[in-house]
Amino acid sequence: MKYFNLRNRTILGALVRTDFKIRYQGSFLGYAWSLLRPLLVFAVLYVVFVYIFPLGKGVEHFPTYLLTGIIFWNYFVESTVMGLTSVVARGDLLRKVNLPRYLLVFSSALSALVNFGFGFIVLTIFALLDGIMPNLGWLLIVPIVCELALFSIGISLLLSSLYVRYRDVSYIWEVFIQMGFYASAIIFPLSSVAVSMQKWFFINPIVQIIQDARYVLATNTSATIWSTQGVDWLIKLAPFLIITIIFILGVFTFRSRSKTFAEEI
Amino acid sequence: MSENKVAIEIKNIHKEFVLLHNKNSTLKQAAVNIFKKGPKTIYKALDGVSFNINKGDFFGIIGRNGSGKSTLLKLIAGIYEPTAGNIYVYGGLTPFIELGVGFNPELSGRDNVYLNGAMLGFTRKQMSAMYDEIVDFAEIGPFMDQKLKNYSSGMQIRLAFSIAIKADNDILMFDEVLAVGDANFQEKCIKQFERLRHSGKTVVLVTHNMVAIKQFCNRALLLNSGRIDFIGEPKEVINRYEKLNRLQDATSK
């Protein structure tokens, strides 16, 4: 496949490697921060939401439930925020070499995936402390991550190509993310939402993804789109339809606009 | 038919840039101006250019500032899309629009060699094969593990130039990249260009340096306001160029 031939894989590798090498430049602990940072952040969240504001009272394995939501949400934010600016940020490259433009967006998604990996390691530690034994069933996380990556890449393709001309996009997206954080039931359990309201949450692909991930990693009492939406197939299909539509829209917008990126940036 | 002799085929290339006078850089402006077309000018950077570059040519492109040289190079490199016309490139092409593309000051010299190489389309394996020669040529062996930001500007440009000169591909393109560094290093650069000339590789050189055109090129092209003014023997092309310069200087006075 020409999209991932040797040359493009080399470029992608170089972009991600550079991102990673630069990230903790000049810090004393260096790469150790990629594990230390999620560890400390999770510890704070753990203390706040398990002891101070116990929003998840009654939810089985709430610490793991909470952190699962956090790492998936962080992946989404990181990959779309970096993806959004990826084309403009690397404008110097686009004006001087013939680089397949979509690689810039992919490299953001991949960099975010590397961080997701570190987050996942830390999550596993917390899960063990929480009394959960990782098992083969955890492999179900792979298709769920793929779905999230597809959604993030679709959004990044769309936003990054618009961002080349309209810099407002980044501010609008910031607000969206802020809204999304509360609309995606990340720091509170979905079960605390009225049952009649839950279906509106599930239309949001992020909720469907995170609830599925929680079901796999934390507790099979976690409400998923499959267990709660009965025969309402329209609702069940909605998140997948949204992801597909956004991805196709993103690919087409990016393809038509990317021809003039080098001139416009 | 001619494919085995021709390296680059350029057929009736047009390139227009749309210059928007009030570019909608915010959504509000775009929304307000959605029905109102802002004034725009179309700038014709290239206006019907056709020519071939043969395999093994050392091909010079000259012209005054704004004549379309760099636009032409970027079109051949695939950085810009032509408004009309076709470009066919037969073989691998490495363009050097600028030296050291992608260089990051926070990375070591070694990392930057591989990074720059990747941006130019070389795999890590290919770069490893060239690596020692590049470092030797740049004469900065002991500093390769230092961060690029600690290099002197002379060292940085030598490293970037060495990657360009040691890059191994069928077709190489250079935009105003000739000789850098001190007299000693410049001499080495000249020698490398001489070697390239005899290597059977195709080289495209954009420059204002007429001495270099005379010394290296077997064919040259003179661009004037986006059109081909003359194509042929370097000596004649330079004569035409100097005549053109005198003419335009006289009319502008």
Structure description:
- The complex is a heterodimer of chains A (265) and B (253).
- By secondary structure, chain A is an all-alpha fold.
- Chain A has one domain (2-264).
- Chain A is built from twelve helices and no strands.
- In chain A, helix 2 (33-52) packs across helix 3 (62-89), helix 3 crosses helix 9 and helix 5 (102-129) packs antiparallel against helix 6 (141-165).
- The longest helix of chain A is centred in the first third of the chain and has 28 residues, at 62-89.
- Chain A is globular, with a radius of gyration of 19 Å.
- In chain A, 39% of the residues are buried.
- With 253 residues, chain B is α/β, with parallel strands linked by helices.
- Chain B has eight helices and nine strands.
- Chain B has helices spanning 27-32, 69-77, 109-119, 124-138, 153-166, 183-198, 210-216, 234-252; strands at residues 6-20, 40-54, 58-63, 84-89, 93-96, 171-175, 202-206, 219-224, 227-232.
- In chain B, helix 3 (109-119) crosses helix 4 and helix 4 packs across helix 5 (153-166).
- Chain B starts with 5 loop residues before the first strand and ends with a helix.
- The mean pLDDT of chain B is 87.
- Chains A and B meet through helix 1, helix 4 and helix 7 of A and helix 1 and helix 3 of B.
Summarize the model shown.
The complex is a heterodimer of chains A (265) and B (253). Chain A is mainly α.
State mean pLDDT of chain A (0 to 100 scale).
91
Distance between the termini of chain B: 50 Å
CATH topology of the largest domain in chain B: Rossmann fold
String of helices and strands of chain B: EHEEHEEHHHEHEHEEH
Assign the CATH architecture of the largest domain in chain B: 3-Layer(aba) Sandwich
- Using the alpha-carbon principal axes, give the shape of chain A: globular
Ranges of chain A where pLDDT stays below 50 over 5 or more residues in a row are none
Sheet-strand content of chain A, in percent, reads under 5%
Largest sheet of chain B: 6 strands, mixed
- Fraction in beta strands of chain B: 25-35%
Radius of gyration of chain B (Å): 21 Å
CATH class category name of the largest domain in chain B? Alpha Beta
Number of domains of chain B: 2
Q: Can you identify the CATH superfamily of the largest domain in chain B?
A: P-loop containing nucleotide triphosphate hydrolases
Tell me which protein chains meet in the greatest interface and how many residues each side has: A-B, 29 and 31 residues
Largest sheet of chain A: none
